[in-house]
Amino acid sequence: MTTATGHHGQVETRHPETDDPTDEAPPGWVLNAPNRPLEVWTYPVLAVVFAAAFAVVGVVLGGVLALVVGVSGAIIITVGAVAVFVTGRHAYDEQTRVASWRSHVTRVVVAATAAVVVAITSSLVGSRLGLLVGVGAAVWLYTTARAAPRFDHLVAAWASATVAVACATLAVVGLTVESVPESLRAAWIASAVFALFATLLAVGQFRIAARTPRGQEPLSAPDRTAS
Predict the structure, then answer these.
(1) CA dihedral 150, 152, 153, 159 (to 10 degrees)
(2) What does DSSP assign to residue 26?
(3) Exposed (0-12), middle (13-18) or buried (19+): which is 41, by Cβ within 10 Å?
(4) pLDDT tens-digit profile of 66-108?
(5) DSSP structure class, residue 21
């Protein structure tokens, strides 16, 4: 199957031999590929705004640790925003399934990375912002489980596992290291709850990924399709 996606937003799936339109709907990641210039910019701009807000929060919280964490997280998210823009622009220009898939993969990886950064850094400075992000991510993942490709679930699973390990480490350090400031000790120990939540989320996503069939991802060279 090939999918033609014009710059005006029309999407149709064509049979690979006859090139006639078919009734099969394209995957969601094809439908979500940028079809207008505004769609190329939307996610990158939102990511940059979020990065700026994250840096501001680091400044507002005060302290060297919060400042370093906030600025570092903002830089990582900004780099991700650039990657989303580049692949989104290519998907808009090329209008192929492979370009659309690359754009989708970049969005998923950047979103997961941003969530991991927020979860770990917020726990590091004693904020519960990461827990809110985790709950929101869990709700979104399970409400879109049937429509999401296997790749999405694997990325979410590994991201959750990373958060679980980091938060468990913070909890152990908070319990065993005497030099941890009292202002952070309680928050780091409480990260054990976040670690448990992230572990359950990771296990759930690995299980969903194992049940999700392969076959949506384009594995061959891109076939340019007409608008």
Answers:
(1) 150
(2) P
(3) middle
(4) 788 888 888 999 999 999 999 999 999 988 889 999 999 999 9
(5) B
